[in-house]
């Protein structure tokens, strides 16, 4: 694994600091660590989701600068997470409704036994060197994210597997023998964690020259100037900001709370869009009974908003 990065604070403004973090490590005491970690976050006003498993930790959280600094120090004080890496961005409002620390079998679910990025993994590529690699005609570039993420942004020339979940990725690889046609495989994801397992899997499948973007799309958008960028669109993030763009500024997308797909400003103007009820992605896959239920939920959300409260269902 790589050493911890001394990351500069993002230049974008926002009252809340958002930290995306992960670390693969043998963590046998993960079950007993859940309660103290939940309590620490609650005591410091931190919200978000942290997943812990025998293979490590993964998640995204938000809070004040001091609170996030305390959390990172607390996590790195654990011997297993001393080299934990994180990436920072800003949010104008708290992007999470609650704090959840969850016990999982995997911190990113691929569903393949014995994939251990601590044992075998692809070659890390810094954002400053990424353009040269993916512009090389001997390189196949693969986006390891899911279809609702790739729909709003992707690297120029990248292959989109159009997976619904990360569990589908291993079968996609096995069903695409053409991936062996070029000597180099370059892979990327949002923050780097999926590529840890994806590149490990590719190496196990016999691919030799396998690379992945260090820090993921988020680090690329932070480090690479927009005028030099090969990134097209916005990057989906798993919080209420929905997407971020170059410089990690908040993107223009909203989330359809019926199907959880990101929707653009143009899609908001679609006749199929109804706040909290439907959008062009899900209108034809939902029944009128579904939409009635969603309207009732949306009504409760709006009533809570008028009272100055947050409705958990929103």
List the main descriptive attributes of the protein structure presented here.
five-stranded mixed β-sheet; 314 residues; four-stranded parallel β-sheet; disordered N terminus; TrhO; 9 helices; oxidoreductase; alpha/beta
Please describe what this structure looks like.
It contains nine helices and 15 strands. It has 314 residues and is of the alpha/beta class. A five-stranded mixed β-sheet has the order 4-1-3-2-5. A four-stranded parallel β-sheet has the order 6-10-9-7.
Name the quaternary structure: single chain
Give the mean pLDDT: 92
Largest sheet features: 5 strands, mixed
Overall outline = globular
Q: Into which percent range does the helicity of residues fall?
A: 25-40%
Q: Given the structure, what is the number of helices?
A: 9
* String of helices and strands: EHEEHEEEHEHEHEHEHEEEEEHH
**Straight-line N-to-C gap:** 38 Å
Enzyme class: oxidoreductase
Protein name: tRNA uridine(34) hydroxylase
EC number: 1.14.-.-
InterPro entries: Rhodanese-like_dom, Rhodanese-like_dom_sf, TrhO, TRHO_N
Describe the secondary-structure layout:
Layout: E1 16-24, H1 30-43, E2 47-53, E3 56-63, H2 65-76, E4 85-91, E5 99-103, E6 123-125, H3 127-135, E7 139-143, H4 147-150, E8 153-155, H5 169-174, E9 184-188, H6 193-204, E10 209-213, H7 216-223, E11 231-233, E12 235-236, E13 243-244, E14 254-255, E15 262-263, H8 265-268, H9 288-306
Parallel strand pairs: 2-5, 6-10, 7-9, 9-10
Antiparallel strand pairs: 1-3, 1-4, 2-3, 8-11, 12-13, 14-15
Pfam family, one: UPF0176_N
Enzyme class: oxidoreductase
Family: Belongs to the TrhO family.
């Amino acid at each position: 694994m790589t050493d911890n990065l001394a990351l500069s604070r993002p230049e974008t403004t926002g009252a809340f600091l958002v930290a995306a973090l992960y670390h693969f490590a043998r963590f046998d005491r993960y079950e007993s660590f859940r309660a103290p970690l939940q309590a620490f976050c609650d005591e410091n006003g931190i919200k978000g989701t942290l997943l812990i498993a025998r293979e490590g930790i993964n998640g995204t959280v938000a809070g004040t600068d001091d609170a996030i600094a305390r959390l990172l120090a607390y996590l790195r004080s654990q011997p297993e997470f001393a080299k934990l890496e994180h990436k920072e961005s800003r949010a104008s409002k708290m992007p999470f409704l609650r704090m959840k620390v969850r016990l999982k079998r995997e911190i990113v679910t691929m569903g393949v036994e014995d994939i251990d990025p601590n044992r075998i993994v692809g070659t890390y590529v810094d954002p400053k060197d990424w353009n040269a690699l993916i512009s090389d005609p001997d390189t196949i570039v693969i986006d390891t994210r899911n279809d609702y993420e790739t729909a709003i942004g992707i690297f120029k020339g990248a292959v989109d597997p159009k997976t619904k979940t990360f569990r589908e990725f291993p079968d996609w690889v096995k069903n695409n023998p053409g991936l062996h046609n070029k000597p180099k495989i370059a892979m990327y994801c949002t923050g780097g964690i999926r590529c840890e397992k994806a590149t490990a899997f590719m190496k196990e499948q016999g691919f030799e020259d396998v690379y992945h973007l260090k820090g993921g799309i988020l680090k690329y958008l932070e480090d690479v100037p927009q005028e030099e960028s090969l990134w097209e669109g916005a990057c989906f993030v798993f919080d209420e900001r929905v997407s971020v763009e170059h410089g990690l500024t908040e993107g223009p997308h909203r989330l359809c709370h019926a199907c959880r797909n990101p929707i653009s400003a143009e899609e908001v103007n679609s006749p199929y869009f109804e706040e909290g009820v439907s959008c062009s992605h899900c209108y034809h896959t939902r029944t009128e009974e579904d939409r009635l239920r969603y309207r009732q939920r949306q009504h409760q959300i709006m009533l809570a908003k008028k009272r100055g409260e947050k409705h958990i269902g929103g």
